[in-house]
Amino acid sequence: MNPAVAVTFKAAAIAVAALIAVLPGSPVVTTILSRAGATVPESTDADHLRGGRWIGRLERLAVFASLLAGFP
Questions:
Q1: How far is CA 28 from CA 1, 23, 24, 47, 65, in A?
Q2: What per-residue string of b and e applies to 10-32 under the rule 16 or more CB within 10 Å gives b?
Q3: pLDDT in tens for each of the 72 residues of the chain?
Q4: CB within 8 A of 65, min separation 6: which ones?
Q5: What is the Cα 29 distance to its own chain's centre?
Q6: Closest CA to 64 of 22, 13, 25, 30
Q7: DSSP secondary structure letters along the chain
Q8: Contact criterion met (CB below 8 Å) for 5 and 11
């Protein structure tokens, strides 16, 4: 196999794995918390509270990168 194609394939596989690790996390966490009985207070507006979603995504990306680097 051509080395350039192999590197491109590997980079694409890592990018897809990162997306799979990061993006589905929010619905999974929401489902788990709703089953545990956690609720959003009535006084909060969900449109204004997106910081936690971004922090969660960045945390999952950091864990993925750490595992990819071989640092468990």
A1: 38, 10, 6, 19, 20
A2: eeeeeeeeeeebbeebeeeeeee
A3: 899 999 999 999 999 999 998 998 888 888 888 888 867 667 666 666 678 888 989 999 999 999 999 987
A4: 18
A5: 11
A6: 22
A7: --HHHHHHHHHHHHHHHHHHHHTTHHHHHHHHHHHHT----TT--GGG--HHHHHHHHHHHHHHHHHHHT--
A8: no
Q: Where are the domains of the chain?
A: 1-25+49-72
Which residue is associated with the tokens 């996390």?
Answer: 25
Residue 72 token pair: 């468990």
Which one-letter amino acid corresponds to residue 43? S
Return the CA Rg of the chain: 17
